[in-house]
Every structure is written in C-alpha cells, then in structure tokens.
Amino acid sequence: MKKMKKYICAALAAAVAITAIPTYSTSAATISELQQKRKNLASSTEKAKQEIQSIKNKQLSAEQEMEAMDKILNSIQAELDAATEDLNILTAQLAAAEAELEEATRKRDEQFELLGSRMRFLQQKGSTGYLEILFEAESFSDLFLRMQYVNDIMGYDKEILDELQKTQETIQAKKKEIEENRAEQEEVVKLQQKKLEEQQEVVNEKKALVASYENDVKKYEQMIAANEKADKEVLNQIAKQNSSSSSSKVYYTGNGSLGWPVPGYSRVSSGFVTRTSPITGRTESHSGLDIPAAYGTPIVAAEAGKVTYSGWMNGYGYTIIINHGGGLNTLYGHNSSLVAKVGQVVSRGQTVAKCGSTGWSTGNHCHFSVLKNGAYVNPSNYL
Ligand SMILES: [Zn+2]
C-alpha cells in the first residue's frame, strides 16, 4: 500500500500545469511579477492548509472531549432512569396504600355506624330495652348471663371499632411515610433531571464548537479553492505573455531526442498515462515518468535550453522547466533544491536541481514531463 502511494503525482497538477507551459520565453518583468503572484497564492494556500490542520486537531480533541461528556451524560441518564423507576414504584405503593386506607376507613365508618345504630336502638327502647331482656331471665344465673350478653354485644362492637380504628391509623401512618419517601424521591429525580440538563447543555456547547470548526475548515477550503482559481488565471496570463512573445530559438543541435534526467537511476516507478478508466470511467492521468532516486541526486537537463521556471509549483513542489525551443519543454518536479535560475541557459546533462520529495509526493523521485507545444507527451518517445 505504502509502495503504491509512494510516487503518485496528482492529476490535478497536470491540469494546472498544462495551461502553464506553452512556449516559455522572456517578457521577464511581467512574468516574474506573475510568478510572484503565484508564490503569494501558494503561500496563502499553504497557510490555509496549516490552519485547517490546526483546526482539525482542535476538532479532534473537542470530539474526544465530547465522547467523554457523552459517557457522563449516559451515566446520568442511567441514574435518572433508576431514580424514576424507584419513584414509579413508590407512586404505585402510595396508590395501593390509598386504596387500602379508603377500605379501612370505610370498614371503620361502617362499624361506627353499626355501633351507633345499636346504641340508638337501645336508647329508643329506653331502659325497657335492657330491662325487657333482663326481665325475661328465668333465673339469677340466666339474668347474669343476659347482663353479660348485653355487655358483650356492646363491648364486642366497641372492640371491633377500636381494632378497625387502629388498622385505619396504621395504614394512614404507612401512607404518610410513603408520601414522604415519594416526595424525597421526587427531589432525587428532579436533581438528576437538572444534572442531565446541565450536562446536555455542556455537550451541546461542544457540539456547537465542533460545528463552528467545520465551518472554519469550509472557509479555508473555499479560500484554497479561490487561490487555485486565481492561480489558474495567473497561469493563463503567463501563457498569454509567452505566446505573444515568440521564442523561436532552438537550443539543441540533434534531432530533439532527450537525455536521461537522472543519471545512475534507470527504474521507472510510474509511467505516462492518459486514459479513461474502463472501470470507474474517470480520467486517469500521469503527466510524465516517476524516476526514484536517492535524496540529493543531481537532476540534469535532458537537453540544452533556457530555464523558464525555477520555483515552487503546486503539486510538483520545487520545479524546473526548461524551454529547448521548437515548442519543446521539459519539466523536473519534486526536487529538494533548485540549482538553475530562471533565464539561465543550460547545456545537455547540466545539473539543474537535486532530487527530493517536495509537493504532492511521498518518496524521493524525479517527476519528468515532456511538453510539446504546451501539451504533455509521452517522454518515452523522446528518450
Ligand atoms: Zn510523477
């Protein structure tokens, strides 16, 4: 996987560069101004990328904090659920106690009513009520029994009433206790709800912060896109400048075949590709050859010519472009350092840069492109 990624040169760079390199020539003042503009855009883009990175770091730590907060939120929610369940149980117990109390009160009142009616009955009959019962006694022992009987009836009713009264009071006391417990539990639930709300607020604040980070990233991405657009416009201006001032001078003497740009390193890790993928339908393109070499290896001019570009180029990093005349240009990308200067006339095989991995590259290599009349062509046809 790492190996595959290693020498990938972005297709975007090709799209940008292709408008950039029709026949390069002088008109140096304006072109260097334009190139300065490109540099400024590139540094603004670089700053924006750094900002995005730092925002993304902040976002990451905010997200980690949010995760911890969510965990706390969940545990508070669990406590609230348990407290609510307890409250529900107490509420059910209270309802049962209320029903029980109602029943006990009803029974007590009934008994009270019964006793009352018995007493009223005896009262209505006056003393004869008792006496009738007593006078009907057939003997002393019978009389005593009858007296006992009257007493017992009254006493029994009274006893039952007392018993029911006690039961009613016990239930009332139990109900009161449940009521108090329930009130306490209600407070617990309220407290837990408040805790939950507070925690939710903290989480929401974090979420808003993360969202604002996303917004900030978008702004910088828009800035980068705007820079890229502006860069293309500058490149178009450079192209116009180049086409308006013709450079017919041909620097090479042979048939235009080119020398190998990285002496001592012959392996090509990625070749020239322009095709539409039969699978994805996307345009796959690689605008040159990738030649892996050790860091600092001399990169040499493939042919004699005039250096028209020596500087940073989006995607290609530190880049050299040499105009050989006759509409032929060569490009050397991802260098660690640049040796040749703009306007310098170089000979075939002369060192123009040192190998590196700047720009969109993940390993030391030379990206070598050949342009004929402003279009990328397969370097293999020239080597
Ligand atoms: Zn490449």
Q: What is the multimeric organization of the chains shown?
A: single chain
Are any ligands bound, and if so which? zinc ion
Give a short account of the largest sheet. 7 strands, antiparallel
Tally of separate domains: 2
The stretches of 5 or more residues where confidence is low (pLDDT under 50) are 1-29
Strand content: 15-25%
Alpha-carbon distance between the termini?
A: 30 Å
Radius of gyration: 49 Å
Mean pLDDT, rounded to whole units?
Answer: 82
SSE pattern, N- to C-terminal: HHHHHEEEEEEEEEEEE
Find the count of extended strands (DSSP E, 2+ residues): 12
CATH class descriptor of the largest domain: Mainly Alpha
Give the helix proportion (percent range).
55-70%
Number of helices: 5
Structural class: alpha+beta
CATH fold descriptor of the largest domain: Helix Hairpins
The shape, in one word, is rod-shaped
Indicate the CATH architecture of the largest domain.
Orthogonal Bundle
